[in-house]
Every structure is written in C-alpha cells, then in structure tokens.
Amino acid sequence: MTATRTAPEVGGGERTASWGIGAAAVCATAAFLVLLIPGLRHWFVLPVVLCGVLVAPDAVDWARGRLDTFDPRAVLGVVGVHFFFLAPLLHVALDYWPRYVPPSADWRDALGRMALLNVAGLLLYRTTVGPVAGRGPDAGTGRVAPPVDVARLRAIGTAVVVVSLLAFLWVVARFDGPTGYLSSLADDRDELTGLGSILLVAGLFPLIVFVLVLVRHRDHLRDHPRTTAALVAALGVAQLVVGGLNGSRAHTVWPVLLAIGMCHLLVARVRRRTLVAAFLAGLAFMYVYGFYKNVGSAALGLLTGATSTAELSAETGRDVPLLLLGDLGRADVQALTLQRQREGTAAVGNGITYVGDLAFLVPARVLPVRPPDKVEVGTDVLHGEGAYDSGLRTSQVFGLAGEAVLNFGAAGAVLSFAALGGFVRVAGRIHRRALDAGSLPWPGPLGPGLLAAVLPVSVLLVLGSDLGNLAWFLVNHVVVLAAIVFASRRRTG
What we know:
This protein is mainly alpha-helical. It folds into 2 domains: 12-129, no CATH class; 150-323 and 410-487, no CATH class. Helices cover 68% and strands 0% of the residues. It is built from 23 helices and no strands. Helix 5 runs antiparallel to helix 8 (205-216) and helix 11 (250-266) runs antiparallel to helix 20. The longest helix is centred in the last third of the chain and has 40 residues, at 399-438. The protein is globular, with a radius of gyration of 23 Å. The protein starts with 11 loop residues before the first helix and ends in a 6-residue tail after the last helix.
C-alpha cells in the first residue's frame, strides 16, 4: 500500500494511446487464437473482437495507472475484457458449454448474434458513460459530505454488533452448539429453511466490527499495512464461519472486497499488484469452495490428503473452465437465451422477472403468491415451456444483458447498457469524491469512504448478476452499514 490519495489525471493524448494499446492487444490475442484453433475461424470472432476493442481502453488506463485502482469505470473495463472478449473465445476454444441444458445448434452463431448486440450496447455505454474524468470539475473536489460523528458511529455500530452477536449465538445454540451448527451448514442446509431473517441479522457483525476497528485505528493501520492485511483476512474468516459455510461464496467474497475498498479509500491506496494477488487468492477460494458447495464436509479431505482436486472435480463436475466461464462469464447463457427467443420457443417476460427477483423483500404473509422470477422464467426459456412446472430449476445467472433479453428481447439487451453507463458514470464521480475526502486529515468525512466502497462491487453485480443478486447484496451487506453512517452524520447549521 501507499499513502498516495489523489485521483490520477487522464489526458487526451494518453487516452488515445490507451485506445491504441487496447485495440492492438485485443487484435493480436484474437489473431493468435484464430491461427492456433481452427474452431475460431468463424464470423462470430469479428463482433467479439469489436467488443474487446470497445471495452479495453479503460482496462489499459487502469494498468497504466491512469485510473484509480478501484475506479468503477476501471473495474468495468478490466472485467469487461474477460466478459465480452475472452470468455466467448474460450467457450469455443475449450468446447465448454452449459451442462444439463439443451444446447444450441451452432454455438458460434449464437455467440456471434449476442456479440452483435453487445457491440451496439457498448457503443451506447460509451456514449452514456461520457469521457474519462481526471482532476477537474468532475473529479469530485467540490462538494464534501457532512462529517461523521465518530462517537455516534461507534455507539450505533456497537449496538448493532451486540444484537447481531446475540442472534448468531441463538442460531448456534439452536443447532446444539458449534459442532452441530457447522455440521448443518456443511451437510444439512435444509435445516436453515425458515431462518432467513435471523440469519440475516446474525451475519451483520463481522463487517460492522471491521468498520469499527477501521474507524478507531485508521492512523495505526495506515502505518502498518501488514496489520491491515491481517484485519481483512480475519474478516474473511469470520464471514466464512458466520454465513459463508451455508453454500454461498458471496457471503465471504463481497464483504472482503468491500473491506479492501474501504482500506483503499480511508487508510492507504491499494496497489494494483496487491489487488491482483488478492484476486488470484479469491479465484483459488472460489475454486475450492465450489467443491464444498457440492459435497459439503467431504471437501475437507483436500486438507488431510484424503482426496484430491482431480477426484472432486470428477465427482462434482466443477473444474477451472466452469470457474472462468460459468462463474465469471455469461456469454453462453446469454447467447442461448437470445437464440431461444429468435426461434420462437420462448416469450419475453415484459419485466416480470425484475418484479419476481425483488419479491423476497416482501414477507410471504404479505405476498403469499409470488410473481415469476428469473428462475421460473429462465427455466422455461432454457429447457422448454412447462419445464419449471415439471420440477426443473435452472441455476443459471443471466447477467444484465441476459435478464434484459429474458424480459424485453434483443432491444432490451442493447438498452440495458445505457443504464450500465449511467450507473458507472455516477459511481465514478462518487468514487473520486470519496478518494479526495479520504485524503483529508483525521477524523475527516468518513461517510463517503465507507459507502463508496460499495460501488466497485455493485458494478460487478450489475454487469454479471441478476437484479435479485444485486438486491441480496444490498440487503445483506449495505443497508445496515448505510443506515449506521447516515444516522452518525454530524448535524451542521
């Protein structure tokens, strides 16, 4: 980490260079793969390359230090290179497609048609997101949020921690102690049914404790980066024990990313190589956790040597391509969804899945009959009409453009990029203001730094997840934190 706080400046000439470097890298990579793999000698490569050219400049700006490490625009650029460019090519190169789903007659044609929509969408995104802002009127140096009353934040945060800890202890006691609790999380998750609200409260305290420690020892952490790293690691372990062992990697991954973002904005700037190392560690965690999700405590055999990753991979069907293309990509499912609609075998949902995705926010006693969500609509789209009623359930995540296709067809997919661009533009402006605020002397306006850390994670979720996944993240990890921050603002005037 380094104490550099200001947002990098992005000049016009440097921006042109980033476009050139990005285009050259994308074209060279595509040419190499096409020469190496005969299956890639198909028209679908052309729109995929155009997608890469359109998204790569922000990734290059990030790599060159022209955009801040956690700038939402940079996050979209770096992730977008894989999402829009590498993933479609790797699907064909590795001949990897969704399991247990009726396949496309020609995956390359399906990928190509979706890539054409992505080209149009990325052009709209470029128009909506606007030019790159460096130090200037859009850099966030103007308005400053009201400062946080640190004493009030500690008091409110401590109260939330106490309530959350009591809820967690109640859950552990309900399962006859730590052993029964951990056993149920690993191998009998049906026992958690009906405990959604109490589990939500019980899972709050690790992140809030992290925030309280960060606020209390901000100056010390700035001078001791290893202590900061240990604090983030401790949060990851706590999140894993409290909620992550129930089969959801998101319970651990997203809070850790939030914590790293808070450290970046409020303690010391996280270097790119540190973030890359954290990303690789996260990939390793996601890979191993995938086995645990499928086989429960049997995955612990990896630690004792009783089993191997090869054996677990053969048993569960989880491998590196599934991680890179299934967990971190949506090219195949989006292309297949578009094809189903083109073939006339699936009707558009006209927005119903967005309503259904948010229905979990309403208690069942208030809304006993739930509107169709993306699982119900998506199952019938991918497997055929009536598949959901027959008992099939899809676990596919469609992503922003994919869920837009489910609801509004090809036009919806393109228009969804306008929403993405608008969100990234606003998020980038807030991020730059928070970065500037974080450089102010202690105690400074903590609120922007604590809340702006949500934005890079939100960009990832908006792009690659469905509305329900985004809402789940906000409810589980953001709403209470935001309430604490806003309730702690120092009154002025």
